[in-house]
Amino acid sequence: MIAKPTENELIAQCVEAINSTGFAQKIVNYIAHLVQFDCAVILGCRAHKHPIYLYDSIDTRRELLFQRYLTNSFINDPFYIELSKNGHEGVYRLVDISANKDLAAYTQYQQQFYNETGWVDELSISVRTDESRWIVIYLGFLESKQRFSAAQKSTLIAHFSLIKALCRQHWGNNLLLLGPLTTSATGQLIERGLDTFANEQLTTRERQIAMLLVQGCDSNDIAKQLNITLGTVKNHRKRIYAQLKVSSLSEFFQLFLNHLITSE
């Protein structure tokens, strides 16, 4: 029988994976050594922008993460609301913050995400990488009687400084782009989707810009990434929208998500 890695070995694996495609999985493995959970999602978050997908370990109904949450349901996510309003780092259970949220908005979020995905409880680990960006690691339970305990929260708080340092080292100095992706099934799915999305309608440069839009970049981000002017990016975006027959970023994002799901 193969012995499970020790905590020190798991930390070492995280350090070795910094700036590599396997980091997200390694840090999830480390957190799983500390506390029990059924699934995990890692997002890059910036105020007033769509979250950027970075990782997930969801086995079933993954399409709802892309179809619902990343498209619009995130707006009613109590963790997202708390982060946008206060920008506090730390470890938060759903019970810690949901009591202070608008009941109607929270009920809608439960119906759109929790009830449909099967999640029954959630905990977030929020790490601020700079003045406007966070890495948020969501942990979820799927079993009806499971809830994150105060003891689990305390354990994660005790290890938060290390988790924060690892996340900052890996994600702190880049645009939080999807690629290069992990070797997980999800990563391979999204990579295939990026390779095949709108490849007949768009030019090479337009596809570059479309792929950055898909990954959560705004026009300023894209201009810096491609070393072109903001006006050039805006002109390309207009033509991309026209070619794909969409009129907004939300419609563009939904088109890609639909492509992603149908290509699976």
From TrEMBL:
Residue span(s) of domain HTH luxR-type: 195-260
Source species, domain of life: Bacteria
Keywords: DNA-binding, Transcription, Transcription regulation
SUPFAM superfamilies (alphabetical): C-terminal effector domain of the bipartite response regulators
UniProt cross-references to SMART domains, sorted A to Z: HTH_LUXR
KW Transcription regulation (keyword) present: yes
CDD domains associated with the record: LuxR_C_like (cd06170)
InterPro entries, A to Z: Sig_transdc_resp-reg_C-effctor, Tscrpt_reg_LuxR_C, WH-like_DNA-bd_sf
Molecular function GO terms recorded: DNA binding
Pfam families: GerE
Keyword DNA-binding attributed: yes
Record-given protein name: HTH luxR-type domain-containing protein
